[in-house]
Predict the 3D structure of the following.
Amino acid sequence: MLILSIESSCDETAAAVTRNGRETLSEEIFSQADKFELYGGVVPEIASRNHLDAIARLADAAVKNAGISKKDIGAVAVTYAPGLIGALLVGLGFAKGLSLALGVPLIPVHHLRGHIASNYIAFPELAPPFLALVVSGGNSVIADVRSYTDMRVVGATRDDAAGECFDKAARALGLPYPGGAKLDELARTGDAGKYKLTRPVVAGSPYDMSFSGLKTAVVNAIHNSGQRGEELDRASLAASLVAAASDILVPRVMAAAAELGYDKIAVAGGVAANSRIRADLKSAAEAAGKTLFIPPLRLCGDNAAMIGCQGYYEYLAGNTGSMETNGYASMEI
């Protein structure tokens, strides 16, 4: 089954053609990151307008580069939650129009389920059940993936997502937007033990996380250094931050996998591209005898191929939409 998929939940506009939930025939991505460097973050209204300008062109290119015609498309999949609501509605409205014009089903896809599905592209042998860690700019979730469409949240952040913490800390350190990759690069040259940063614990919820205090601790370290007239070791503060975030994420994932009896752990989302977190997860999984699945860097960020792949399994489960399907800024996985 060929699916044309659309992703527009934040500041990437993307379209892809996938086959049977595992194979990507084509993919087009328009990133707005350079446009938001001036503002230090995404401006939702501008992002929505740019999605409008790019989406039809990208969809046409995806079909052409897949070597198919529109009559070959069996369904249209689209991200409908969670994300920036204006951006989501642009993609959803376009996908509805395509579905109606082509006379094919509309498949609404949860963005985090899509991130998990990026592993199906990278690892054809992976199949549920398994434990998944999804860490991105807007979400940090540990999920029990019981089947392709049956998922339960085991743990989640109580406040900021890990990616948001990284982005805000990067901005405070004077790094350009988007800050995640720049923070990772800077951290590689620093001493991760130089700054003592908090590792919050949520009482009574061993798998839940908190990153707000960690972000505040970085900002305070920067301010304190300036007030005392001391030279700030930016690289070591970045390294200390990344180490603290990894210390929050990795033990919880391993403990949840042990409790649920899973030998397979999948990781997804933009923060999964961080070199320290990837390395710590690999070491922990190897020590515990678990098989770890982390997609290549190109599949960690937002893309439409992952939406098409998850859309295939949603379609098989009968989870299709209609012209009344709405977009949602927040929704559990």
